[in-house]
Amino acid sequence: MTDILICAMPSLFLDRSPSAPALLRSAVETAGYSARTVDFNLSWFWRQCQGNMERFNQLGCVFRNSEVATEKSIRAAEQWIEQSLEYIERVNPRLLGLSVFSMQQHRATWRLTQAVRKRFPNMKIVLGGLG
Fold this sequence. Notes:
5 helices, 18% strand, 131 residues, alpha/beta, globular
């Protein structure tokens, strides 16, 4: 069991990964707790978008506030949620920390927190970040 899993959320630019999860992990470990990090934005890019930037931009409409989600993007998001839940279950954290760096991550964060609450009703969830 890990004390905290710190997650970077989709959908961000791929060439500017946020440093907050790594910094938070270091602070948590310095305080004597165990921590792991995961970049769910990259997992979205590699798993649902097959590393294809055009597909990343097309399917990303499901997470962008200014766009309407397509059926294809909704199915991809549902797959991403299930894969993320499986990862969370394997890590088995006491606390789930979601790094929400921008407003473009609100939809992904909302979708994931709803699924986490349903599957792991007693898991504590902490949100933080500029977004």
